[in-house]
Each structure stands twice: as structure tokens, then as C-alpha cells.
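Components:
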Amino acid sequence: MAVIHAPTPLSGGAHAPLAPMLPPIDLLLVEPQFLLRRTVAAVARDMRLANPQEITSVEAASRLVAIHAFDALFISLDDEGPALELLSRVRTGETRCDPAVPIAVTAAACDTSLALRLKTLEVRRLLLRPFKVKGVLEAISALRAAVPAASTSQASAATPRTVNPS
Amino acid sequence: MIEAPIPAGDVQRLQALRDLLILDSAPEERFDRVVRFASDEFDMPIVLVSLVDEKRQWFKAQVGLDVCETDRASSFCGHAIAQPELFVVEDTLGDERFADNPLVVGEPHIRFYAGAPLQLPGGEIVGTLCLIDRQPRCLDEVDRAILGSLRELVIGELVNQAATE
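Structure:
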């Protein structure tokens, strides 16, 4: 698991023409802060990194993953207990997502206990607040690189878009 | 210094700005939070939502400045609204339009400026969301995309305000 404190160069997307072109991924973005969530979603869409489904709470995200599969998950741990429970249910195959779906999370802090739990849950990236939009985009780019090409939403035309339940 | 140009259709532009009923209104959190967010995201000491009136630019939201308006002729935003694209001056001292501008040689000693024009659905550009630094800077493509996204949020708030008045 990588812990990110500062942004690193992005790969892919219309704004990085030298990087390998990958299709945008179907991303579940769970972030309660409006400006951060909306900006990340808009830029990720603009850069063709992802087609984000914006969700404000873990509770709403839990309902959504019960009916819709995503290529990757990006989840705030502000509501830590329910968020970790959601990740656990994803990994045990209790949602529509692939149990091996790439996951990144954000948190205000991380102690040893949380780090071990995130490692157990095979979380690929942890961003500690405060972070920048650029850092989130870099993490989404890494998630996209981890998604098998054949499984992306555009490649497989899998499940249709759903209504945001938040 | 080259004064800010008066774009074609400025009368209609000013009418669209006044129709928003926002000039000289009180600060509002929905704009303030955008400039705070942009200041943090870009590490910029000054961020403004600037609306370009007939003779002045007036700041609806600001981080890092103690004044609420400056004159239009010497304003950077007056240049930025002359076209719809992001307007960037990476180093004012190397740009003949701005090297001797009073906002460059005096307070707030602008060295870097990036203004994202606020274009209303009718096409009128009423102001900018702008980033200012006291040292030369440049924006990469991701920075520009982020600024563009924040600009759209400000436009959305301006339009929503007009719709609810």
C-alpha cells in the first residue's frame, strides 16, 4: 500500500498525451466534501481518467455497490467504521464489484492498527489529509492502471450507469 | 503599461453583469469557499472572484487582499475578460503589458497571474476566477483543468443567484 502525501505526475488522459492511452474506468468516488468531490470528478472526467459516480456517504455507497459493479473504488474513511465494513464486504464478494477491485482511501490520520487493517483489505493507496486534488487524480490514475483492460466499463460495456442514490 | 482593453459588446456585458444583482453585495460562503479551496490547492497567496464593472474590478470573494476593488484600466482581469480562454502571465516583469503596472511595481506586487474568465450562458464574460502570486509561476495541464473546474462552479453559483433573484 502506498501512502501519498504529495502529488506525483499523472499518467494517461487527454492532458498527458505521452502516457499510454487507457480507457476511463467506472469509479465509485465517496467523498463528503463538496468542492473536493466535485472538482476531482470533473477533472477526472475531463482528463478521461474515469467516469466517477459521486457519492457523499458510505451508507449511500453501500446501497450502490449492491446493485452496480465498479472498476475501482475511491473512498473517504471519515466515517471509518462503516467504510472499513464496506471494504470488507467488497473483498468477501458481498457486492456487485469484483472482490479484487482496486481500492484507494483517504483518511485524516493512520495509526498502526488502521494501516494493518488497510493492508489486510488490500487497499492500494492511502492519502492522508490534507491533500490536493492533484494527489487524488494521481491515485485515480494508479487505480486505472491496476484495472485489467478487459474489465473496464467501456471495454466490456458491462452494467449500465445507475442513478446516484445519495 | 498597456491598459485593459474595452472589448466589443461591453455595454451588453455590463448589462449582463448588473442583471446578476451581485455588485457590492455582501460576502457569501458559496464563493468564499471556492477561493479558499483554490488558494490551498495551488498554494497561491491571492485568489479572487473578480467582476469587471465599467470603471473598476470588484471582488465578490477574495483571499490575500485587503481591498474590495481596484480600477479597471490597470486590472489584469480587464485583459482576461477580452477572450474566453484562460489568461496566464507567468512573469509580469517579462511582459511589456504589465511590467510597469502599478499592481506590479507596487502592492500587491503581482508577478504571476492566471485568470479563468467567467462566461455566462449568454456569452458575456463578467469577470474571472483568478490566481495571483508574488513570484513567477506556471500552470501545468492538470492545474489548468482544476482551475477550469473551479471556474465552472463559480459560474454555476452566479447563474443560480440570477435565477433565484
